[in-house]
Predict the 3D structure of the following.
Amino acid sequence: MRFDLDGLDVFFPYDRVYLEQHQYMRSLKQSLDAGGHCLLEMPTGTGKTVCLLSLITSYQFANPSAGKLVYCTRTVPEMNHVVEELGTVLAYRAEQLAIAEQQTADVEMEDISAENGESGLSEANSDGAVRPKKKPKRIVGKPKRGREHTLGPIATAKGAGGSGVLALCLSSRRNMCIHERVMAESDREAVDAACRSMTASWVVEQAKNRPGSMETCSYYNNFQEAGEATTMPSGVYDLEELKKWGQKRGWCPYYLTRQAINHANILVFNYQYMLDPKVAKMVSKELEAESIIVFDEAHNIDSVCIEALSVTINDRGLEQATRSLGRLSTEVKNIKNSDSQRLQEEYQNLVNGLIDQGLLDPPANDSSLASNALAPDVLNESVPGNIRRAEHFIQFMKKVVEHLKTRLRSVAGPNGGVKSETPLAFLHRMTNGTSLEAKPLRFAYSRLSSLLRTLQVSNLDDFNSLTYVADFVTLLATYSEGVAKFAIIMEPNGSSVPGASDPVIQLSCLDSSLAIAPLFKRFGSVVITSGTLSPIDLYPKLLQFEPCVSESLTMSTFRPCIRPLVITRGSDQLAVSTKFDDRNDLGVVRNYGAMLVELCSVIPDGVVAFFTSYSYMESLISEWDAIGILRDLTKAKLVFIETKDVVETTLALDNYRRACDCGRGAVFLSVARGKVRANVWIDEAICILFSHNLSCTYRSRKESTLIDTMVEL
């Protein structure tokens, strides 16, 4: 339907609008008109996605000065869902504009006929009788659905949405690559390494100078040779359509999309492209200040911001960092013997500073590191003299790694235990124990990036552990003064496996606003929305911003789809509860497992079990495995478990659906307020909730989450 909302012509691709949807779009429009940020909460399943896309695309159409729509999601399935919904919205708008244009043309023809003395209201029969003239029939059809009509390049005269819209989604190389050898790799790190080994600038240059000496990517080479001709026609492109377009033209979809970002009207990608400083500069630096930023399913956005600026180091990682430093030392010696001029040029660049040497803006195809935080003096000053030379910097990092190993041994020792220190105290002990200065530590990450580029290292994944150490000390030195925004937490056993010894040092961010504050300052409209933002007044305090609109909407229609059953006792009549005092009791653990096994033995298809937290789920699964319940559960159904890794969870969920579709049946063990609850759609599943909370405030927030979870399912 097409309707007027406070003076805005809104194109909504469905026949009716719920009351809460109308209120939601009105609040969103008020925020856009005011040029401020907003917090909007509306229950899951009420159509937030279509409301956001309909209102904002209509606002862009009515206000050409409005910037891009940047829609941030959490997972690839949700990204695909958003793009499909966007295709439906724009197809409906194009249809309505075409109808309006035809009606306008008919009216103009009638006016011309009237001016020429012809009646547009009646016409005569052969016998002279006058009858009313038929008006042109108005064709109002439903929007065409299906990928073939809404996605891909739109071959109409005015393009997608009737105004030539270009909508793109961006993901990792693993999801966008079309090169056969690269696609054969098993994981994301291997895909990235294989791609970089064929597209790095020095690899391409060597292949041109000595044809056949280096393997390169034909799709990337064709893309580079096309130059300015690499434009994309108007359309709505999801990952599959981008791959098809790339294969058709012989261009790399990944680099094509990165280049087309500047010309796109709508972008859909992961949270990390906006919140994680390591990858945000690749995309967000090209966005204008008028852009509209949307964070959907943002109930955990504070956790995402904290994770983006937190670094965890363990003993295994430090051993790998030591080996990486040895490899770098060998590479530096080889370069000195073969091409010492390259190191000399790098030294001179470091004297000039990071900005002057262009380290912050490397070529798009080069592998490079991006720091979590770079202080202004790090950007503008020259790199300290004691780490300018490559061999000096390697010795500098060896001292840092050895000090961290010493701290880990002290934590795991007999006098160890869980300890917490401020960044200033930890930095003071480091400088005293290693005789290192604090200032060079702030340059560690950028200096490592410069060295890896100078040595022309394309496989950065081999140096991940070393980059974590450099990132750790850079953040430590940058945020050591003033109010503590980080905490150093040292644990003798950071492993989730019971009984395993894995001491860790974690630089934990305490202020979630550090990652998102630049977005609030740079962009005029940032929309944070989810089905669960309760308590909604907490988010402005956590993220330290002032929303111009903050509203929580309720569901206007009741759907009798929830059949709650609360179980307080097990089959042996022992009380069961997940409250902290009782959750580790063997009887409680056994009864919960037996209940799940009994349900899975009689339910034919899917079962989804939600736990209160990742740690509780892991401990319960470990106990079930020890007493044989997990073995009995696998006899009834396939078992899939949600993890904190988005890729692993997405793969597990896809296999869960396949097991249900083929009749085998499956059980999915998940976490309330986790990635599965908010970002995927689970149909026809029985939901089991293992939950009990003591805090009144936390209980209120958690209960609303669990009810929202049940409504969604």
In short: Residues 132-141, 354-372, 691-713 have pLDDT under 50 and may be disordered. The first helix runs from residue 19 to 34. The chain has 31 helices and 21 strands. The two ends are 28 Å apart (CA to CA).
